């Protein structure tokens, strides 16, 4: 008996192609135009969502939370999500989804719909095949209708172009602008408190050689309703500039420069905790030498000599906060820092000049 393979030479008979099914868009002009508008609509909504992303970046406070428990304005709220992140996710995710769906719909419903049979052949294509492929690609570009359908093409270009907007506005998050570093929350009469307990500090609380990490009292203050005066992002930003160290040395070891003779109390001096190199927090204290060492790149400051740099890449002294005691004998600031508390940056000299004007002379 003759088998199918012996008879035809093929293990399975070629079933051939089923009759071609035309899509509604191929045979109905109204349906084609409706589909075109739907796709353009998706790209249009994607563009609006990307613009919404940018608007949310500038209008939604980073502390606001959604689906959180407690009073969202008090700083005591917990759980939930950041409203800004929630909006970023929904707008950017929605835009990407709509652009993806629009492109798939365009390819499935409007681009050329020809069935093709491709026979197996040697791995390397012949020159003729290569030319044919290029011809096919060019034909595909023609059939995609990119030239004939300016509505879809332009709306897609608009949506893809708008994807660059979130990337541009988020450059702002690379760091605070340098001029925003000029001031801290310290001001005249504000108590210096322990950064963990919030307890105000009296000179008698410190022994000679001791270093205490401290903060301005406002970080621990609450309003009439018991809510923190500063909270959330504002608190973190303020802490990053206002953190200080308080050290006690023998008064005879200190050599204050001119104008700073009364910036300390009984040998107690207060310096910024922010390294002037690139801003690491510092508190590695060598009490015998009065040196403060930054753990990041080993800049070393002499606290008995006005925070002068004696080693390392920092080239500005550590800013010093003038101290006094209030009526109850607690340490308080005499003013804000007369120097800029920040890593060094190119416009610093200009900004320091402005600060000098405010404090009436060079600090
Ligand atoms: S940050 Fe302090 S030495 Fe570099």
TrEMBL record:
InterPro entries, sorted: QcrA_N, Rieske_2Fe-2S, Rieske_2Fe-2S_sf, Rieske_Fe-S_prot, Rieske_Fe-S_prot_C
A UniProt-annotated Pfam family: Rieske
Bilayer topology term: Multi-pass membrane protein
Top-rank lineage group of the source organism: Bacteria
Residues covered by region (Disordered): 1-32
Spans traversing the lipid bilayer: 39-60, 86-107, 151-171
Matching PROSITE patterns: RIESKE (PS51296)
One function term, GO molecular function aspect: monooxygenase activity
Gene Ontology CC: plasma membrane
Residue ranges, compositional bias (Basic and acidic residues): 23-32
Main localization (coarse): membrane
PANTHER family: CYTOCHROME B-C1 COMPLEX SUBUNIT RIESKE, MITOCHONDRIAL (PTHR10134)
The family this protein is said to belong to: Belongs to the Rieske iron-sulfur protein family.
UniProt protein name: Cytochrome bc1 complex Rieske iron-sulfur subunit
């Amino acid at each position: 008996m003759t088998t199918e393979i012996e008879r035809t030479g093929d293990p399975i008979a070629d079933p051939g192609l089923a009759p071609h099914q035309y899509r509604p868009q191929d045979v109905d002009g109204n349906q084609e135009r409706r589909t075109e508008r739907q796709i353009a609509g998706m790209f249009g909504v994607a563009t609006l969502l990307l613009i919404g992303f940018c608007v949310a970046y500038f209008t939604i406070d980073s502390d606001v939370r959604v689906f959180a428990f407690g009073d969202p304005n008090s700083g005591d709220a917990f759980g939930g999500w950041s409203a800004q992140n929630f909006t970023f996710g929904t707008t950017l995710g929605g835009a990407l989804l709509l652009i993806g769906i629009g492109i798939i719909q365009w390819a499935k419903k409007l681009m050329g719909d020809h069935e093709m049979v491709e026979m197996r052949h040697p791995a390397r294509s012949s020159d003729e095949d290569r030319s044919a492929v290029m011809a096919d690609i060019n034909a595909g570009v023609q059939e995609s209708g990119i030239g004939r359908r300016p509505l879809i093409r332009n709306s897609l270009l608009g949506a893809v172009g708008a994807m660059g907007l979130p990337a541009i506005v988020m450059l702002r998050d690379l760091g605070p602008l340098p001029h925003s570093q000029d001031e801290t929350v310290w001001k005249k009469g504000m108590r210096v408190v322990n950064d963990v307990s919030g307890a105000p500090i009296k000179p008698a609380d410190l022994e000679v050689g001791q270093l205490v990490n401290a903060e301005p009292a406002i970080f621990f203050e609450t309003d009439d309703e018991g809510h923190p005066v500063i909270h959330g992002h504002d608190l973190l930003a303020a802490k990053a500039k206002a953190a200080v160290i308080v050290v006690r040395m023998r008064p005879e070891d200190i050599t204050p420069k001119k104008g700073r003779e009364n910036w300390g109390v009984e040998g107690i001096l207060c310096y910024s905790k922010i390294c002037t190199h690139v801003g690491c927090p510092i508190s590695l204290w060598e009490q015998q030498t009065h040196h403060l060492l930054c753990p990041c790149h080993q800049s070393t400051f002499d606290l008995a000599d006005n925070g002068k740099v004696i080693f390392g890449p920092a080239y500005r002294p550590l800013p010093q906060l003038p101290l006094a005691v209030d009526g109850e004998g607690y340490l308080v600031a005499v003013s804000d820092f007369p120097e800029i508390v920040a890593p060094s940056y190119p416009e610093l000299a200009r900004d320091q000049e402005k600060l000098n004007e405010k404090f009436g002379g060079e600090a």
